[in-house]
Amino acid sequence: MSVYTPLSAEQLNDALHPYGLTLEQHRAASHGIENSTFLIDARDSGGRPRALVMTLFEQLSAEQLHPYLALLLALDSQQLPVPAPLTHDGRQPLITVAGKPAIVMPRLPGHHEFSVDAEQCQQIGGWLARLHACDCQSLPALPTERQRLAQLAGQLPALPEHERALATALLARWQAIPAGHTLIHGDLFRDNVLWQDGRISALLDFYNACLDCPEYDLAVTLNDWCVDPDSGQPMPERQQALLSGYRQQGGRHDPERLSLALAVAALRFWLSRLAGPVSSHSEGQGSKDPEEFARIFRQRIEALQQATGAD
């Protein structure tokens, strides 16, 4: 959550006014790469402290954000640990700050954990199954991951020449499979989860959510939680634990489709990282290393070829 649009204390205080809140202090958040995010301490009209997060959206318009915000409110009503946006003026979640759409959310308790073990992987698998079981049929339509993949195909020429044809064929094979109807997170990396007292306290950043095959969501998650980032090698104990947690909460998946999705998801994040950050001038993390997912892609595509007997 790097900051591409710096804000003054005065701007932040003005942004909090519609919610009846007053700024006390703030700082930039340090994780993520797409939006500008601030951690805020404020007080309400009764003087009670409020811990908040404000996100300015650098790429999405107010119209594009509408289905995601409706989703967050719906998931909150279904008892998932998500930061539903605060509303004002008759349940309006959006405000405009520095000419960009923004929301204010409660800052849920917890912290990030990047050195995870098998037990933690089992927990995230369980929450993924619960998310996949959520009812969102009555909500506004979300953009599809297939559309994002089609856009990211524009980055294929940036791949090494000997891998370009393989990656192109892999995307075409996945796009030929009909999209599923399961609600998926699409970006459930470790930096999108909070922990408190050894338990998951929050699932964050639903701005890649859509309806698709559950195997794709499992693949995205497995490629971050259950892989050695230095070698790209899968870590079997963690992977088995995550899938066990998924099954224990009622999740079901097709192993053959998961093998394909693991390679596709690795390619997706290799391509998106090659696309770079929103801006070359940012405070915080900025863009992530594309080579991490290049390594994972090579491992996953080799495993897929071995499973299918392809060259």
From TrEMBL:
GO molecular function, one term: ATP binding
Swiss-Prot/TrEMBL keywords: Amino-acid biosynthesis, ATP-binding, Kinase, Nucleotide-binding, Threonine biosynthesis, Transferase
Associated pathway: Amino-acid biosynthesis; L-threonine biosynthesis; L-threonine from L-aspartate: step 4/5
Biological process terms in GO annotation: threonine biosynthetic process
Catalytic activity, EC: 2.7.1.39
Matches recorded under SUPFAM superfamilies: Protein kinase-like (PK-like) (SSF56112)
InterPro entries to which the protein is assigned, alphabetical: Aminoglycoside_PTrfase, Homoserine_kinase_II, Kinase-like_dom_sf, Pseudomonas-type_ThrB
Superkingdom of origin: Bacteria
Homology family: Belongs to the pseudomonas-type ThrB family.
Enzyme class: transferase
Name used for this protein in its record: Homoserine kinase
CDD domains xref list: HomoserineK_II
Keyword Ribosomal protein: no
Reactions the enzyme catalyzes: L-homoserine + ATP = O-phospho-L-homoserine + ADP + H(+)
Domain Aminoglycoside phosphotransferase positions: 27-233
